Amino acid sequence: MAEQRLAMRTQFPASAESLKPRLKKAPEFPILEKQNWLIHLHYIRKDYEACKDVIKEQLQETQGLCEYAIYVQALIFRLEGNIQESLELFQTCAVLSPQSADNLKQVARSLFLLGKHKAATEVYNEAAKLNQKDWEICHNLGVCYIYLKQLDKAQDQLHNALHLNRHDLTYIMLGKIHLLEGDLDKAIEIYKKAVEFSPENTELLTTLGLLYLQLGIYQKAFEHLGNALTYDPTNYKAILAAGSMMQTHGDFDVALTKYRIVACAVPESPPLWNNIGMCFFGKKKYVAAISCLKRANYLAPFDWKILYNLGLVHLTMQQYASAFHFLSAAINFQPKMGELYMLLAVALTNLEDTENARRAYTEAVRLDKCNPLVNLNYAVLLYNQGEERGALAQYQEMEKKVNLLKDSSSLEFDPEMVEMAQKLGAALQVGEALVWTKPVKDPKSKQRTTSTGKAASFQQPLGSNQALGQAMSSAAAYRKLPSGVGGTSQLTKPASLPLEPEPTVEAQPTEASAQIREK
Fold first, then answer.
1. Burial of 340 (0-12, 13-18, 19+ CB in 10 A)
2. Which of 234, 186, 225, 185 is nearest to 204 (CA)?
3. Are 85 and 70 in contact (CB under 8 A)?
4. Residue 496 and which of 267, 325, 439, 453 are 20 to 30 A apart at CA?
5. Long-range pairs for 91-100 at CB < 8 Å and ≥24 separation?
6. Cβ contacts of 103-109, under 8 Å, gap ≥ 24
């Protein structure tokens, strides 16, 4: 009894709260980022279909408010080539997170890929306000300014990028700006700094070697091209350049061996087939030369240098109508080159269209201020037409150009060109005033017209490599070997942005340094 009473005393009254009904648990709101890890995992594994399925599920749960899912969806669209759709999605990300510089960078990137470079620069400038220490923004602004032809602003931005963080691609773009401006010395200085920073970058080594090649500094050119091939024996640009150097020295068989290696890597390269064609031209295999050059022309129908070489080979084979066709096409693409008009005049002379030949020579003389062969050819034509006064004027103009070339550098003129000038001078009775040193053996003037390929010292197109050490092209007979053939690299096209760079432009052919005389 006592225990029961004690138990009754120790019992506590029931709580009032326990008598109330229990409330339901608060609803759980969806977590916007709960599947971001899975989206990221599929994306880096390049399993884009599974990634898109997860993104779709995530966006349905979050009612389209998951920024990361939208961001990755935009990246996938860009990889698939749907640039406009990616732009719209990146703009959505920028609305969801307006203080994110990364979202603005991606918006600008999509605008850049759509060719809207001015709009891209505006967005990049907005991103720069949010993050002033991002080298990538400065670099990309520089690339956009290159496409807008604002090279001074491009240089400033690229220098800012290098100040923030040094990268190979920034050096490459800065060097290409100097190439666009035609300043090879500054371009070489930039590439030398780049090689010091990244000595194993084969693209930098190859480019620097090609620039030294253009300036005639052959020892350094061989050194850098050799280093490039040491790090990457399959670097087709360096092999193509080395083959071109051998080709200019007349080692056509060795050059063809090098080109065989390049053909395995890039069988559809127009410069490759151009140079192979000119190797066959040097070996007097004209049909094979035309076959290779026409393949190069098929791969690059708007390359005036290939058309130039085709015209040259057809002139050699005395196929003047075909030569006229290709030279006319080359002039349409390169209307400011006097030498093309001169070769066209040679073809027209052989087609017995003297009136148009004279017009072509007149245009060649107007455009070409350095090559004395233009005036010599024109003087021969005028003399053959009985216009000795006009021939004498052209002959005197030729002498002025020769004197200027002799004063500026120690040039060696082609013996056959010297012989032709001496004969013409004797026929015009100006033998005492000749600047040539070779004695005259035959004072009789024959009906000839000299024509030439490219001279190494003048008319050099941007970024191309001319025949090594050749000061002036000559006027040789139809079946004489050319003194050299040239063709290697073009470096002018700007690369893309650092995250997704475009492929660089491959080596471009140069016009052949070959010689022709019309009988």
1. buried
2. 225
3. no
4. 267
5. 93/67, 96/65, 96/67, 96/70, 97/67, 99/130, 100/130
6. 103/71, 104/130, 105/134, 105/136, 105/137, 105/140, 106/71, 106/74, 106/75, 108/140, 108/144, 109/78, 109/140, 109/497, 109/499, 109/500
DSSP class per residue in 335-377: TT-HHHHHHHHHHHHHTT-HHHHHHHHHHHHHH-SS-HHHHHH
Residue whose entry in the numeric block shows the structure tokens 């060795």 = 254
pLDDT digits (tens, 9 = 90+) for 379-399: 888 888 888 888 888 888 888
Give the integer Cα–Cα distance in Å for 505 and 236.
12
CB contact set of 184 (below 8 Å; sequence gap of 6+): 178, 211, 214, 215
**Which whole-number Å values give the CA distances from 130 to 92, 162, 269, 280, 498, in the listed order?**
18, 19, 44, 59, 20
Give the tokens for residue 486.
Answer: 């040239």
Residue given tokens 């024509």 in the structure block: 451
Q: What is the DSSP letter of 120?
A: H
> What pTM value is reported for the model?
0.64
What does DSSP assign to residue 466?
-
What pLDDT digit, counting tens, does each position of 207-263 carry?
A: 999 998 888 888 888 889 889 988 988 888 888 888 888 888 888 998 999 899 888
- In the three-class reduction of DSSP (H, G, I as helix; E, B as strand; rest coil), residue 518 is classed as strand
> Who contacts 349 (Cβ-Cβ below 8 Å, separation ≥6)?
357, 381, 449, 518
Asked if residues 346 and 377 have their Cβ atoms less than 8 Å apart, the reply is yes
